[in-house]
Amino acid sequence: MTFVEILSLIIVTTLAIIAIVKFAIKFDYVKWREYKDKRIKERIEELCTHTDLEPINGSVRVTSRFHKPPMSFVWVCGDCGITTSDLEYINKVSAYWGKNPDIWLKQVKKRARLVKKRRG
Ligand SMILES: [Zn+2]
Question: If you measure from the C-alpha of residue 22 to the centroid of ligand 1, how many angstroms do you get, rounded to a whole number?
Answer without folding.
Answer: 41
